[in-house]
């Protein structure tokens, strides 16, 4: 049985384009960064407050570290995903082709721009 699972408008592709996938990529990177940052913040918060007694000030310091690290990592990974997606869409539209070269070029340009700011 060879029937389509979804009804598509006439002339539409069966796969999503790079621009449509950019939203998933950016959101996924933000959520991954927030999760990783929160776990890292919890680790750092517990390490920095290990000499304190369990009390409200210790809990507040740990929560502050969790939210600070979560936001930092979410912003960083979200920004990288935005750059990668923007470069990918621009390269695809400029070349008029959808292939692996676009992905390689977008990743290379993103890495070069990120490292050019002096970050380690």
From TrEMBL:
InterPro entries: Tim23-like. It is a multi-pass membrane protein. The gene is Timm23. The chain crosses the membrane at residues 21-42, 72-91. Keywords: Membrane, Transmembrane, Transmembrane helix. Its main location: membrane. This is TIM23 translocase. It is found in: Membrane. Pfam families: Tim17 (PF02466). The keyword Acyltransferase does not apply. Coiled coil: none annotated. GO terms for biological process: protein import into mitochondrial matrix. GO terms for molecular function: protein transmembrane transporter activity. GO terms for cellular component: TIM23 mitochondrial import inner membrane translocase complex. The keyword Heme does not apply.
């Amino acid at each position: 049985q060879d029937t389509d699972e979804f009804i598509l408008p006439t002339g539409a592709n069966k796969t999503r384009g790079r621009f449509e996938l950019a939203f998933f990529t950016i959101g996924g990177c933000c959520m991954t960064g927030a999760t990783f940052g929160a776990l890292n913040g919890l680790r750092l918060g517990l390490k920095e407050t290990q000499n304190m007694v369990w009390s409200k000030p210790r809990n507040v310091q740990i929560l502050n570290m969790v939210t600070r690290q979560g936001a930092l990592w979410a912003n960083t990974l979200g920004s990288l995903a935005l750059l990668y997606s923007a470069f990918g869409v621009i390269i695809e539209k400029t070349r008029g082709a959808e292939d692996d070269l676009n992905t390689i070029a977008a990743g290379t340009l993103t890495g070069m721009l990120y490292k050019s700011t002096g970050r380690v």
